[in-house]
Amino acid sequence: VQLQASGGGLVQAGGSLRLSCVASGFTLRYYAIAWFRQAPGKEREGVSCISSFGGSTWYADSVKGRLTISRDNAKNTVYLQMNSLKPEDTAIYYCASPSERLWVPPLIFDSTQYHFWGQGTLVTVSS
Length: 127
Description:
The chain contains no helices and 11 strands. By secondary structure, the chain is an all-beta fold. The strands form 2 sheets. Strands 2, 4, 5, 6, 9, 10 and 11 form a 7-stranded mixed β-sheet that branches. The radius of gyration is 13 Å and the shape is globular. The N and C termini lie far apart (37 Å). The model has no long low-confidence stretch (mean pLDDT 95).
């Protein structure tokens, strides 16, 4: 089981990026996927989550209206579209899934509830 995050890069403030999280070794459609980020010197924080089959989505207050999570189950991929980026969005972004099918953690952004993690992709937003 593996999650592969990609799509990070350097962008100016106000710009956009789209992150991808590709799963291998399991069928992604049955699992919720969350994106977390960790900025230098800060704790990891939850950014967004999408339920299995995409019926529900959740966002941290700091990114609402700017980030959109979606999934293409046929491609075993979850996306995070990031618009109107700010320097404070600079971080390593990780995708993660719980080990249980058809389940979303009661505390959506409790990282301890997520079992599988991607390696992270760096997003740098310059001012």
